[in-house]
Design a protein that fits this description.
This protein is an alpha+beta fold. Helices cover 25% and strands 23% of the residues. The chain is built from nine helices and 16 strands. The strands form three sheets. A seven-stranded mixed beta sheet has the order 1-2-5-6-7-8-9. Strands 10-11-12-13-14-15-16 form a seven-stranded mixed beta sheet. A two-stranded antiparallel sheet has the order 3-4. The longest helix is centred in the C-terminal third of the chain and has 18 residues. It is globular. It binds zinc ion. The site of zinc ion (ZN) has 6 residues, from helix 4.
Length: 325
């Protein structure tokens, strides 16, 4: 560039616009561009001889945070959020499927959205790749209940099975309820899309889906637990390897800051609200009594920790990070 009085002045003006300590000369790639995207959300821990890989499917902001808790004024909900150092004008709902390698079975618990969800979800596949798990090697998928955030990811938008070699195991109470056209016709409008998702996901494999009763062992080391209330056949699970046990609450407790701290609060999506409260207390009491770690589908990542009694409710304590397996 030929230096003239005009270019000199322009250079001086540009230099004045650069923050102190940063040069306008030198390579232009000194500052890295912002990615604007989260990295794959994965974490791995040991449970006895089992290996658990947690795979975040992403998160959404509740469209109407003021309606998330059905039986409380929003200012009470905001107080609980603020007490937990969370922003009080929004509720972020996360989705946390996980894979358990028992040595005999490779089991996925709940399936996220795949490409059928709103923006911000459907990250499970990226996480699986990053974790070195091929979806074709998943031999069992265990579903806690049929709400769309748990089953949509079994089949992508194009119609293909995402886990083509897996046996799909579902609570029989969920199967009976959501496959019933009479129930669909009389359901509130908010639940109609869930009935449709159930048909989209399961119709092509209706004869192959394995239905289980609550309280039964599904594969060696994994037993279902009665957690009905959130939905008519909602299941929790105990995952056990030797003396190590994990209680998967599924949706027994949505965000722990709201519903473990305040077990009598009603989540809008709890379909039988009094029954959901009693299931919540029963399972959280079990976790307290046995000092058993829990996993929760809507718990903050990596969604594993402990439950302690606090006041009239419970408190969630995240598990220490396992740095070495
Ligand atoms: Zn859910």
């Amino acid at each position: 560039m030929k230096i003239t009085r005009r270019t000199l002045m322009a250079t001086a003006a540009a230099a004045a616009a650069v923050p102190a300590g940063r040069s306008i000369v030198g390579p232009a790639n000194a500052a890295a561009p912002m990615s604007g995207k989260q990295v794959p959300t994965i974490y791995r821990y040991k449970l006895g001889e089992f290996e658990v890989t947690v795979l975040g499917d992403g998160a959404i902001k509740a469209a109407r945070p003021d309606t998330v808790v059905a039986n409380q004024p929003f200012n009470e909900v905001q107080r609980a959020l603020e007490d937990a150092f969370l922003p009080k004008d929004q509720i972020v709902v996360v989705f946390t499927p996980f894979v358990v390698n028992t040595g005999r079975n490779l089991v996925l618990f709940d399936a996220g959205f795949a490409d059928n969800g709103p923006p911000g979800v459907g990250l499970l596949a990226t996480g699986m790749t990053a974790a070195g798990i091929d979806p074709k090697t998943v031999d069992t998928v265990i579903i806690s209940h049929f709400h769309p955030d748990h089953i949509s990811g079994l089949r992508n938008k194009a119609g293909a099975a995402v886990y083509p070699n897996a046996e799909i195991m579902v609570p029989s109470g969920e199967w009976t309820f959501w496959r019933d056209d009479g129930e669909m016709n009389k359901a509130a409008d908010v639940w109609k899309p869930s009935f449709m998702h159930t048909r989209r996901v399961f119709d092509p494999i209706a004869n192959d889906v394995k239905r289980f009763e609550l309280g039964k062992e599904l594969v060696p080391g994994i037993t279902s637990v009665d957690a009905r209330g959130h939905s008519p056949g909602h299941a929790g699970f105990v995952i056990a390897s030797g003396n190590a046990k994990l209680l998967y609450l599924a949706d027994t407790t949505n965000h722990p800051v709201l519903f473990a701290r305040n077990p009598e609060w009603h989540l809008w999506a709890d379909m039988d609200k009094p029954m959901a409260v009693s299931a919540r207390k029963r399972l959280l009491d079990m976790a307290v009594a046995d000092r058993m770690p829990i996993a929760g589908y809507h718990y903050p990542f990596p969604a594993v920790g402990y439950i302690e009694k606090r006041g009239a409710g419970y408190n969630f304590v995240p598990a220490p990070w396992q740095h070495v397996l």
